[in-house]
Amino acid sequence: MLPASCRRAVPGAEGGPAPGAAASRRAAWLGSALRSAMARPWRALPRARSWGALAGLRARPDKFGGVSVDLAELRRPLRLERAAFGRWLRGAVARWREEGRVAVWLRVPILQSGFVAAAASQGFAFHHAEQGSSTLTLWLGEGPSRLPVYATHQLGVAVQHRLHTSLIFFPPIQTINAWKFPGGLSNPGEDIGDTAVREVFEETGIKSEFKSILSVRQQHEHPGAFGKSDMYIICRLEPSSFDISFCQQECLRCEWMALDEVARTKQATPITSNVAKLLLYGYREGFDKIDITMREFPAVYPGLFYKLYHRELPESYRNIT
């Protein structure tokens, strides 16, 4: 038996006070927590460890109004629970919507692929995958997604003109603020001329007909093409309408401008001013000196055709057999 001096200090001991309700609840909670931790030890990890693993993860805005998140920046990915990542992503997407962001790009290293399901449950979809990672996207803007599809190369087309003038526009979001020719990315299976006609109409409301290719710009490791090579085809189009009705999501301003002014202005991109000089030369000396025209031929594969682009070939040479 405990000494009398001790019996008064120990709850429940003979002669001591009975345990209170609060003490009983604390003891029951402690026992339950210990049993839970022994049965499922990972549940006993403090939630703070998961949130701490998210430290350093940044959303980087891009020039097109979206944000990019790279899970390779996670400091301790093994400590991050999928449920905690899902809660963080849900809150982040809600915040980006409020900020007016139009898209989210989420890069997931292959060893963190377990987080893909949490992203997919919130509407993310695969955009592309490479050897060591996958990239998912979520469109936040109005209407159907306008995000470009992934490809091994990227093809852009541009240019519209009429007599001594050219159609140019001022894009809302670019690396630099400058006049440029209307144009955009070619869809899979779309011919170069068809892309040029479609993009000019979508951006400016001007209807036109493809006439020729003027030049080609090749750029490797293009930041806007996911680090792939970019082929930018400069086309000459002949308009069949002239009243501008430009897309306010893609243009701030759009107007017909004299070619010599486009060639001289400091507010145009370098490729725009150089193509304007090429067009001036064509007007003065003849477009046969600058045009790269197109001819269609049957392919070696039955039922298929291809388009061959080259400088105009005299008929006497065309008919050589």
From TrEMBL:
GO terms for cellular component: mitochondrion; nucleus. Its main location: cytoplasm. Pfam families: NUDIX, Nudix_hydro. It comes from the Eukaryota. Coiled coil: none annotated. It is an enzyme of class 3 (hydrolase). GO terms for molecular function: ADP-ribose diphosphatase activity; NAD binding; NADH pyrophosphatase activity. Residues 140-281 form the Nudix hydrolase domain. Its EC number is 3.6.1.-. Keywords: Cytoplasm, Hydrolase, Mitochondrion, Nucleus. SUPFAM superfamilies: Nudix. The keyword Nucleotide-binding does not apply. The keyword Mitochondrion applies. It is found in: Cytoplasm; Nucleus; Mitochondrion. May contribute to the regulation of cell proliferation. Belongs to the Nudix hydrolase family. Monomer and homodimer. This is Nucleoside diphosphate-linked moiety X motif 6. The lineage of its organism: Eukaryota, Metazoa, Chordata, Craniata, Vertebrata.
